[in-house]
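Journal club side-thread
Mid-discussion, someone asked how the predicted structure for our own chain would compare to the paper's figures. Pasting it here so we can look after the session.
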Amino acid sequence: MHGKMTKLNKYARQTRLLVAVDCIIFGFDGTQLKILLIKRVLQPLKGNWSLMGGFIGSAESADEAAERILKKLTGLSGVYLEQMHCFGDPKRDTIERTISVAYFALIDIHKYKEQISHEYHAEWFALNEIPKLLFDHASMIEMGRKKLQYKAALHPILFELLPAKFTLPQLLILYEAFYDASIDKRNFTRKVQTTGLLVKLNEKDKDGSKKGAFYYKLNRVNYRSNLQAFLYIVPNAHKLF
């Protein structure tokens, strides 16, 4: 009994900290990679731009909190959501000592834009047009992009940003925008078609030209099993490792 009480006393003497989650929500509008930001609705710092976040409840895990917060803003569930990093600098939050577990999420802007809550004045910003953010949220976004670039070089998760059917030119634009690089169109098309990840449809998108471009959809079975399908498609992938 004495040993148990000693352990409890050690717990009691520890500093109590707040733990939050912040969601870096990526979207792609067809030409630009974007981040969804909100305006803080509470004082202090009310009206400042920030990532969507909140505190972890006493009866929920960090993953559950991230899913709850994402759904509250976008109305979505089942979105690609991945824990990224823990930010614990003692001075990161100017209000109270708070540790934040950061996540990144990938959503299709066009499919979900009407479901976004207006309670927080949410807006999409291009990565090169992000306004000044609260706390260390800018550092979170920068780390999120780098980690996602690394992961996308191994696994085709950027498909999560595309609609259910898409063209190869749209896919090329996405990868060029995400890696800020020019990719050879012929080599890209050839390599993508050899991955076994795409199913060609009989429909064409004729908005760009009279000839049009065939639509494709993702082969979900191969997508989940072929974790290294895009390793040699991403430009300069070897520099990411």
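Post-session note: The chain has seven helices and ten strands.
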